[in-house]
Write a structure and sequence with these properties.
Layout (H helix, E strand, L loop, with lengths): L1 H26 L12 H14 L1 H4 L17 H10 L21 H12 L16 H11 L1 H4 L6 E3 L2 E3 L7 H10 L14 H15 L14 H27 L1
Antiparallel strand pairs: 1-2
Helix pairs in contact: 2-5, 4-5, 4-8, 6-9, 8-9
Length: about 250
Amino acid sequence: MRRRLRAPALVLAAVCGGLALWSAAAGGQQPPPARPGADPALAERGRALYARSCLICHGADLRGVRGRGPSLIGTGAAAVDFYVSTGRMPLSDPTAEPERADPEYPRRDIDALVTYVGSFGGPPIPRVDAAAGDVARGKASFTENCAGCHQVMGRGGIVVGAQVPAIGDVRAVQIGEAVRTGPYLMPVFDERRLPAAEVNDIAAYARFTANPDDRGGWGIGNLGPVPEGLVTWLLAAVALLGIVRLLGERAR
């Protein structure tokens, strides 16, 4: 009986020893405390979450890990809130494009991560009010700055090296965060390029694109002038063929 119990006991001891070594190694890879100015309790919660979920890609010192994740020093609260609240982070494959999904964390944990990482500098979460924006001005700004990738009606699409998301159902604050931080391949638009009032206008227009007014026409999915033109030509070709056939039958 003692010999039968000895092997499982040795295995258990080895497992416990391995866990102890792993715990000790992990203990030596703790992220630094939040910088002064952050809410201490919230920042400490965020630090613990960072150590558990973010450290492996962004490093114990928040300066990134080559081939896994960039530095978070100076990225700011806006970037963290955007990526985590839209479910783009945490990312299972560091080489993949971060895509919108359901958030992995509840709001209180997102706030904690935002507080902790945001204490190391960078843009704060912007204040964006779609109700204060003007749809017509927003369409002009969006067409000039955003439609090249997101399409004029905000339906998104595909560009070189990335899939561009639709923006009709995106919260106003997340639009502002994307504008200020430039996620993935998107360029950064600072206050000089897009003042806060223009961001409000763009948010108002983005909200309009979710349910546009197709008065006087057929929306065709609101995909823009190119597909609408193709559909028009297709319908015209069918109509012309019908007329030609009708005239040919009469000629006979």
